[in-house]
Amino acid sequence: MWVLNRALATRGYRLIFCVFHALTGLYCPGCGAGRALSALLRLAPREAFGYNQLFVVTLPFLVIALARAVYFYIRYGKAPKPHKRDFPAAIAIAAAAVLFTVMRNIPALAFLAPSAGI
After folding, report:
1. Which end of the chain is more exposed for a tag (fewer CB within 10 A), N or C?
2. Are 29 and 113 in contact (CB under 8 A)?
3. Residues of the chain with pLDDT under 50
4. What is the pLDDT of residue 49?
């Protein structure tokens, strides 16, 4: 899939696109995350931050949570149960995503929009 996407990208086509942006013309909290991940894999963090700031900031926490879940599954043979402290964190992340979505669609805060366009 990655090879196909890269081959099409060199010819000006994109395999991955945002349905929300295509339908509404607005940026969702995930717009630019794929390009940000690609930039991070190329060791270009400034470029990645220009594509999706929320993704770049939360990625280390997501990696830690995934590593914890994988470790727990390997060690105990089952997925970890949600803890009471996880609920407020999930609410905070959802609120941050909504706030980020609103802010990146305000013309005065255009620097939050994906820098390379959709």
Report:
1. N
2. no
3. 1, 117-118
4. 93
What are the structure tokens assigned to 39, written together? 């930039």
* Predicted confidence (pLDDT) per residue in 2-20, tens digit: 565 566 556 555 556 778 8
The closest of 61, 79, 77 to 69, measured between CA atoms, is: 79
Residue 34's contacts (CB-CB under 8 Å, 6 or more residues apart) are 16
Tokens of 80: 């970890």
Q: Are 54 and 61 in contact (CB under 8 A)?
A: no
pTM score, two decimals? 0.75
Distance separating alpha carbons of residues 88 and 66, to the nearest angstrom: 18
37 token code pair? 């991940």
End-to-end CA distance of the chain: 19
- Given a contact cutoff of 8 angstroms between Cβ atoms, the answer to whether 8 and 15 are in contact is yes
Considering only CA atoms, which of 58, 69, 60, 52 is closest in space to residue 104?
Answer: 52
